[in-house]
Amino acid sequence: METDEEFKLAAKRLKAEGQRALTKEERARRRRALDGLDVPNFDAFVVDRGASALVRKPTTILQVNIGLYCNQACSHCHVESSPLRREEVMSEAVAARLVELIDASKKKSAIKTLDVTGGAPELMAQFRPLVLAARQRGLDVIDRCNLTVLYEPGQEDLPEFLAENGVKVVASLPCYSEANTDAQRGVGVFERSIAALKRLNEVGYGIEGTDLELDLMYNPGGAFLPPSQETLDVAYRSELGDAYGVKFSKLFTLTNMPIKRFADYLHREGKTEAYMKLLVDNFNPAAAEGVMCRDLVSVSWDGRLFDCDFNQQLDMPMKGGNGGDGGLSVFDVASLDELVGRKLAVDNHCFGCTAGAGSSCSGSTA
Ligand code: SF4
Ligand code: SF4
Fold first, then answer.
1. Pocket test for ligand 1, best of 255, 257, 298, 311 (most atoms within 8 A of CB)
2. How far apart are CA 214 and CA 361, in angstroms?
3. Dihedral (CA of 163, 167, 168, 170) sign
4. CA of 350 to the centre of ligand 1 (A)
5. Which CATH architecture has domain 39-354?
6. Which intervals hold domain Radical SAM core (predicted)?
7. 172-183: per-residue pLDDT in tens?
């Protein structure tokens, strides 16, 4: 980034004008900006194309990004997780407040699912307490698992913990080819992912006759839309089954969102404008009707409230509360029922959720 001529020039110009130079963060923000690309207004576009207005409904899914620390540092990661992000981890106080809000949100909302993501969520101190609290309350729990976490120190009993508590595992495996997966997620990741899938199969995950769901997530390795879910499901099932004896429940495809590391990639390749056009041209009203932000609340590791995990990573919190510019937090609301009817915070990146099959089956993968 330091060698990026565009931002060097911008910084020079500001200095010449007697203003301060751009901070590293501001330069990143500019590089990632999707403004000025002739992208239509998302709000109006959705309604024009026959989907309902983007307004919050009663909450059914509480998605919690429990911390940004991860044992991997994948090239497409929209949360920019890595082993360096040790500080951004959910506290006991925020986790306890979440449980209070689940209990308090009964009038309009009926929270059915706790969806835990990260980073590598299993490595956070609050992961197991939150899972147990949610299961005691009868909620379904989703763990967005990067698979290799099973081989981190202290995680030897993770498959048994997840199985005993009936946690649904949603795992990222960007391709059934070793070369493609390692290119996106790091050398050796494919081999360890396959070993982890087999370990999950051993305790019953993905096996017919058990209730233990093991879903896989595919996302494209470049600036193109994913192929059809059905076609890819068949290919994954035969490739992973024949070569490795791995079983899974369902395969989901996700569109890459034009934010964070993927936005950097688009910028580097000079593909931002073409990718945004691809997303707009492939707008699907059914996907717009089903965008997860309509009935999901996303909570960051520090307790702030967002319409989705993507907005969380773009620092677009729900407005209001006592946090000033920081937006609304779990400590500002008595229950999630208060959020019903609020206008959703949408912008150009949202076209990633409505292109083709969309990117919104409860959002991100870990
Ligand atoms: S990016 Fe978030 S706010 Fe935008 S449409 Fe998708 S889920 Fe909704
Ligand atoms: S994509 Fe998932 S596994 Fe990869 S760095 Fe991000 S959070 Fe970690």
1. 311
2. 15
3. negative
4. 5
5. Alpha-Beta Barrel (3.20)
6. 64-206
7. 887 888 888 888
